[in-house]
Recover the amino acids of this structure.
């Protein structure tokens, strides 16, 4: 179910005309030096240089902040630009990160790199709030949650974890790329920050990279000053314009992704070649999205009964309409597997079963995709 307010935000006028102007500007002029000096003192609030603020980018940031019910948002050139800025901007040597649920691979790689700077981390696959609390250390500064989690799409009780973290002065960050702001709102659940890879559903057309972080003005301003301005992961005005365009159709696209993915998942659940299907809605007896989700997206996974590497490759290579590739959330359907010929140990460490195939259901129609899977699984 999509909130009518979100529908109004996505489709509101974003500028003086049907589309906002693209402010292709690298630097801004000032009427006097005093105004320039004041701008340099507070580049978070003033347009001084294109690496800081841009009128077109600001429109996109305001729309995301409104959708997430956040005070502020900051856009980046990629999802990893946003995610790395959060960690670099808010953490110091001696701090500890707790990564809850199965987590996006590059974030795990970044956490390993941060260890060189004295920032420690632990991975916790058990998503229960009690397990999260036991895993906290005296120096835990930040809890990173992905919900639903990568590859098997388990749900985290964001409200319980965020309340516990806030009572201890620990920052909670939620990767909300899977659900989008339409189907999950972590900020009203007391999460401190939300992050998106905008190349996924928010972009939705396979033609733009981007990232965004949203939360309190205090935290977004700290990330801006300590990481964004220094790391330079600046989104282009044209990319921001493309993302504004994409937000206008996000409610329609997400409804289609949701309905078709559920139809495909139910087909696979009854297929003799399939051992299990990992879709958040299929685990619910009453047919309603599990709390705190308001809906489900088009990304889920399934397991083959014959789970050897060659079996998976043979199945993937027989797909026609569903293409093979990284990322997800676009108009075209995609498939990928985390399995390799010799990575059983890595799969077990990540809590991933053998024979797993992840599907991103696009907009081609459930019937055509089911026909494709039927041929591939034959």
């Amino acid at each position: 179910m999509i909130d009518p307010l979100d529908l109004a935000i996505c489709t509101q006028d974003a500028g003086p005309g049907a589309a906002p102007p693209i402010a292709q500007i690298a630097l801004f002029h000032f009427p006097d030096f005093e105004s320039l000096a004041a701008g340099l003192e507070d580049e978070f609030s003033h347009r001084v240089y294109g690496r800081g603020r841009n009128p077109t980018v600001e429109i996109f940031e305001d729309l995301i902040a409104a959708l997430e019910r956040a005070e502020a948002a900051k856009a980046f050139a990629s999802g990893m630009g946003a995610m790395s800025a959060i960690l670099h901007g808010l953490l110091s040597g001696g701090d500890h990160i707790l990564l809850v649920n199965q987590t996006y691979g590059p974030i795990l790689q970044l956490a390993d790199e941060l260890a060189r700077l004295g920032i420690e981390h632990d991975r916790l696959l058990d998503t229960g709030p009690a397990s999260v609390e036991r895993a906290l250390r005296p120096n835990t500064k930040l809890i990173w949650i992905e919900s639903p989690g990568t590859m098997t799409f388990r749900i985290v009780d964001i409200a319980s974890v965020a309340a516990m973290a806030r009572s201890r002065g620990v920052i909670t960050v939620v990767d909300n790329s899977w659900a989008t702001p339409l189907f999950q709102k972590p900020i009203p659940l007391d999460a401190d920050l939300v992050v998106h890879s905008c190349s996924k559903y928010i972009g939705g057309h396979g033609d733009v990279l981007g990232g965004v972080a949203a939360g309190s003005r205090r935290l977004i301003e700290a990330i801006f000053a300590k990481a964004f301005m220094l790391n330079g992961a600046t989104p282009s005005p044209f990319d921001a314009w493309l993302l504004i365009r994409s937000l206008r159709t996000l409610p329609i696209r997400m409804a289609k992704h949701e309905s078709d993915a559920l139809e495909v998942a139910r087909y696979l659940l009854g297929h003799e070649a399939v051992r299990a299907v990992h879709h958040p809605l299929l685990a619910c007896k009453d047919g309603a999205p599990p709390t705190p989700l308001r809906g489900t997206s088009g990304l889920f996974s399934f397991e083959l009964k014959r789970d050897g590497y060659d079996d998976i490759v043979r199945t993937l290579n027989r797909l026609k309409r569903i293409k093979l590739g990284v990322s997800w959330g676009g108009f075209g359907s995609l498939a990928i597997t985390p399995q390799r010929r010799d990575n059983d140990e890595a799969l077990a460490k990540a809590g991933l079963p053998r024979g797993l195939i992840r599907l991103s259901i696009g907009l081609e129609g459930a019937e055509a995709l089911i026909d494709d899977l039927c041929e591939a699984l034959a």
